[in-house]
Amino acid sequence: MTSRPVLGIDIGGSGIKGAPVDLAVGDWATERLRIPTPDKSTPKNVAKVVKKIVDHFADVIGDDGPIGITVPAVVMHGVTRSAANIDKSWIDFPIEQLFADTIGRPVAVVNDADAAGVCEAQFGAAKNQAGLVLMTTLGTGIGTALIHNGNLIPNIELGHIEVDGKDAETQASSGVKDRLGLSMKEWIPRIQRYYETVEKLIWPDLIIVGGGISRESERFLPKLTLNTRIVPAAYHNRAGIIGAAWLARDRRLHPDPLDATSTPHDTGNKENT
Ligand code: BGC
C-alpha cells in the first residue's frame, strides 16, 4: 500500500520549515522549504507563513491530507498555553482553530520537543527502546519529551526545572552557549549539572540529545558523567518535521477527545487573559 506524504511544519524562532514526510520510510519525501519567521511572530503572522508552505506543497500532499505543526510552547488540545521564547500573544491562544481557518483544513499542533521525541522513538535513536526515554532538544531553549514504551506523555517541560536556583534553560541551553560566547569546555559543566539534576527527578532508561548541537555530540557527550545512557539524536534538526507529520496522521486515526475546537474551551488561566 502506498500513501501520500504528510506535511510536517516546524515553527522556530528564526525560521518556519516544512517538508512532506514519507511515513513509511521516516524521512522527508522532498527537500524542505524554509521561510524566515516574521519579526513580530504573532500567531496571525505565523499562520500566513504556514499557509504559504501548505500551498507550496499542495500537489505532493493532496487536498485533504493531515498537517502537523510544531510550536515551541505547551499545546493543550489545540490551545497554546506558554510562550517562553516566542511572542507572549501565544499564551492561551486557540492556535489549531486559527491555523485550520487560515489553511482551510484540519491541523494537529504539537510541542516541538514532543514531535522530535516521537520521531526518534518511531524511527531514530529510541526505536524499539522499552522503558522510559527522555528526549532533550538543545537550542534557544531546552525542550523535553517523555516517551514510555513508545507512547508520548505530552507537554513535559523539564527545560524549566530549577537548577541551583535558576531556570535551567537560561543556564544550559546551546542558545546560552552562543549568546555568552562560551567554549565547549566552559559549557560542559552547565550541561552536566542540568542532566545530573534531571536524571535524579525522573530516572529514565535512555536520554537522547537533539537540536543543532547534537551534530557535535562527540565533543561533549563523552565528557558527561551520568547514571543514564545518553546518546545523540539520529535526526538532529529534521526530527520536528517528521514527528509532526507522524502525530498528525495519528491524530486523524485517534481524534483528541478533549479537542478544544469541537467543544467550548475554558483554559482556566485567568492570569494570562
Ligand atoms: C519551551 C518548550 C519548548 C522548548 C524548545 C522551551 O522554552 O517552554 O515548550 O519545547 O523551549 O523550543
From TrEMBL:
CDD domains: ASKHA_NBD_ROK_PPGK. It comes from the Bacteria. It holds the Pfam family ROK. InterPro entries: ATPase_NBD, ROK. NCBIfam families: PolPhglucPhase. Belongs to the ROK (NagC/XylR) family. This is ROK family protein.
